[in-house]
Design brief:
This protein is 89% helix and 0% strand. The chain has 3 helices and no strands. Helix 1 packs antiparallel against helix 2 (42-76).
Length: 100
């Protein structure tokens, strides 16, 4: 249980960090965008817009991958009805050689 909690903490930290990076980029370039708009520097203004768009696309990709990961987890862990006798027979078969 501790190992699972530790793994979940590492995963959460990594996801959080990866999702923050595009936000930091967008925030920084929004400041540059404002400066470049005030100064009339259209070349840098277009560059700033492209950086913001790239960061936005990265954020969308990360969120889509996270959503896909959550779907995979649900798909892989679909419950199914298995007769108890079948489970017992499989368990006995796996240890039968050790019992003799």
């Amino acid at each position: 249980m501790e190992a699972k909690n530790s793994e979940l903490e590492r995963f959460t930290y990594t996801v959080s960090h990866d999702l923050k990076a595009p936000l930091v980029t967008m925030s920084g370039f929004l400041g540059y965008l404002e400066e470049d708009a005030k100064s009339g520097n259209l070349t840098r203004l277009h560059s700033d817009i492209n950086r913001i768009l790239d960061a936005n696309l990265k954020m969308q990709r990360l969120l889509n991958e996270l959503l896909e990961l959550s779907r995979v987890g649900r798909l892989m862990n679909q419950p199914e009805d298995i007769p108890f006798v079948q489970i017992v027979n499989e368990a006995l078969a796996s240890v039968e050689s050790r019992l003799k």
